[in-house]
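Tutorial sheet, problem 5. The four components below are modelled jointly, 745 residues in total.
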Amino acid sequence: MTDSLAIRKFSDLANPTRFLAIAERVLPWLAGLCCLLFALGLTLAFTTEGDYQQGDTVRIMYVHVPAAWLSMMCYSVMALSALGTLVWRHPLADVSHKAAAPLGAAFTLVALVTGSLWGKPMWGTWWVWDARLTSVFILFLMYLGLIALNRAMDDPSRAARVSAVLILVGFVNIPIIKFSVDWWNTLHQPASVIRMGGPTIDPEFLRPLVVMALAFTLLFFTLHIMAIRNEIWRRRVATQRRMAARLAGRGD
Amino acid sequence: MTHAFYVLASYAVAALVIFGLVIWTFADGRARRRELAELEAAGLRRRSAAAPSGKSTS
Amino acid sequence: MRLIAENLSAHRGEDLIFSNISFNLTAGEALLLTGRNGSGKSTLLKVVAGLIRPASGAISWQGGRGETGVPVREVCHYLGHRNAMKPELSVAENLAFWRAFLGDRPGGAGLSVGEAAAAVELEAILHLPFGYLSAGQQRRMAFAKLLVAHRPVWLLDEPTAALDSAAEGLFASLIRDHLGRGGLVLAATHQPLDLVAAHRLQMQGFQYAQMEGEIA
Amino acid sequence: MTALLLRDLKLSIRAGGGALIGILFFMTVVAVIPFGVGPDLNLLSRIGPAIVWIGALLAALLGLDRMFQADRDDGSLDLLLMQEHPLVLTVLVKCLAHWLANVLPLVLASPLLGLFMNMSEVAIGAVMLTLLVGSPALTFIGAVGAAVSVTLPRGGLLVSILVLPLCIPVLIFGVSATYAAVEDPAPFLPPFLILTAITMFFAVLGPAGAALALRNAGD
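Model answer (structure tokens):
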């Protein structure tokens, strides 16, 4: 009985072990490239001309838009992982969406705060219940809820399955939320809906934006791989501790 | 307040959050690695004495 | 040192659980409470621990150097069915907390956390979260809690539940050590703890016995 | 006693701790309000202080039921009751730990929600200050409710029901102090000082009542 258990554990670990080996090799390159892109992106961001309408504040766009883009991409990654958990029962998928949730929350937070700091000089207020802002805020709450759910459960594989269900339900729900918020806002505030994005983007702004978006995306993947690795280690520590407890009982 | 203030503030906040995230991830990884090393150190002794059924975690 | 109980009786809800129980224990003596389930062993221990108010009667404590008027609950260790340890914290954190919080009564000193764990032969897993331990290991660690702070009286409710015979022997010897140092032990147990010179109190189970008789 | 404080803080930070859930509940409750009343910024900024206060009140009640029940479930409560330390002091320390771990984060999160409610900087500062001063009273009152319902299997909801009416004075003076800070004619200090007095009063009464209830809850 202990034998078959050991064998199952072993095959479960096979994939993560391979993942750890690959991560070990890929991570330095990813991190290095990410730093380079950030250096390039930041130089571009501060050397390009300001917008004639928005002045310097347009530079906020170079962090705000990539962060907002990542907040959505991260959720898509999590939804994919959730599918992996529920359909293919891939052990790495469990770990992947659990590790991504704090990252998504952090990037969403950056998007919210920078958006707010952009909104104050442009609109004269920190926050409006504009459809897009509201949706991002709801996304933020969903990330936090997922983190709380993961923390509240002891058994990692059960937590992974339950939160996978929640992620997928959330994913399906996103268009509905978006639609209803749109409808709600235009219903109440037909005239003064403030559109973000402003003027059509000219190549002068596009270049730093693209570089920064790339840099952020790479940063996300670097951190995601690191977080997955941490989570794998955390689970190994847990299994080994349980084993140590069993062995201590047998030893005496 | 000038526009530069908002620009700097938003970059500062973004940098703060991202650095926080990076440092947290690093610290978490180091702590886990240390725990594994500790278990390994405690486990090797015990495993050689008690049970040969060990799995390699390197 | 002397623990005196006079004419104790206790209710649970409307039911009278036991009545007119008296005993008198001096230093180095143990009292084993035996009797079937529901006969009131646990309730008696809780009454002595001050967790349930007796319906009548009184318990009192006379300390070593004329120490009187101290509530009995303050000189007791109580090991109930539940282990009073947090599964989220490591064993060492749990024991260190109780060591700091309980503190020693005059007349003795508690062991350090490491020594206490060594006394129950589990010093190797001090760093593990308490929740990771098996039921028997948890019980042994809960017993180690009695060693980290000195109390003259030990109230043990089924101390050997979930234990194998080796650990049972370990507990018996720890209890004997405590008695040898002049401690008092009050234990409710099914297993015959291997104690010499222990008094026995057969709990009758006041109303239950009658009711069972009627049903049968 | 410091050991108890540290243990409770550690427990609330470790897995399953309620602090995150409290903040999340707070944010969700406050964020839902605009969907109900509409995104009119003027209206929101007018009702903002009250909404933030009510949200904080509800979120502060959320984790209360576990304050003693967690200790009761694993038997720790029996040992806490038996010790030489005055039980009132033990309860006070547990309240302090609960406040630090579960309620203080709410106070720190309140400025963020103030921004969502389009409140002015003065109003945000006032809400934070009044919450900082008034929220300990919520914990102390809650401790009584938690102690009373400690033996109940599903005490969670009951604690909120028992405690909410008792919290009304705190809410009244907290919100009125905040509005007094924003709207000029009303003086800020009188309601604020009354709020402080309420907190100090319940700092004494709450632990005493909770200790009494715990002594009598023995089963």
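Marking note: Chain A touches chain B through 42 residues (CB under 8 Å). Full credit if you identified this.
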